[in-house]
Design brief:
Length: about 350
Amino acid sequence: MWGTVRQRLGGYSAYYSLQRIGLGHLLNSSKCYSSEAAAAKKMTVREALNSALDEEMSADPKVFLMGEEVGEYQGAYKISKGLLDKYGPERVCDTPITEAGFTGIGVGAAYYGLKPVVEFMTFNFAMQAMDHIINSAAKTNYMSAGQISVPIVFRGPNGAAAGVGAQHSQCYAAWYGSCPGLKVLAPYSSEDTRGLLKAAIRDPDPVIFLENELLYGESFPVSAEAVDSSFCLPIGKAKIEIEGKDVTITAFSKMVGYALKAAEILAKEGISAEVINLRSIRPLDRATINASVRKTNRLVTVEEGFPQHGVGAEICTSVIEESFEYLDAPVERIAGADVPMPYAANLERMALPQCFDGFYL
């Protein structure tokens, strides 16, 4: 049956990819979260986003938030809860349902030295504003010979949610990651989210900040350092979530949880997996990835986007170009099926990488 599904959906199934390097029991379960050690404080991703916005708006009067329902409704996902009451409608701006319009306003404001944070209800809707994001925001610093900076953040949920169909489920990491002039971030945990959003707001260049709707309510341990208002993570630096010696697994956003679960499953069988949380899609931390592969001699990339021209394809190419002689097995990609996202829940699950503690039958 699974073979039939693979044929019909055209996906790069976990079974097929990992079977080739002898790790074919890695992925398939809908509940996969990291098992990190207990910490003194936990925070949801939603709280991490809200607190980061609040602290940066408090620290810099040039920072403002704009988008659909960010003010009176306090955000479609309640990310901006309390910000309108604290900062007023001039800095928390509700907009009409016109992504092309308010994105253009945001880019223009950035030209004049303000620091807009533009929220999209989903990055699928940002397609309406692609001209402003790419031609106006990403290219202006270069085309002005460095005279015009564009300090703007475009943020919102990216990738699949649950049962929202093809037009609301696409992952755009590879799209934006291919464009010079943009920085592209995809956090996983609450600490990732706080540190990277603060870095994005402070950065002088346009930043695409790809969140995941299904992670908003998830709680993660956060360090005392991460709670401090001065906390900031470097853009372009990956995080090694688990060190290992037998295989490197790279992932970003929600797929990091799946990779961590896979590493737990493998550990029970004596296989030591190193899990790299990319955090940054552009710039990509090629040094950390290649150093890991030179140690483990195997690579599996995990993403929920389409396989062709994906983030995993870029990582594979980087490793082949820089560390080919260290590989003991073919590089493997785990990705979503090469089809528009199905609406039916059972087909949607089959179109995305999953985790499974056992074997396919």
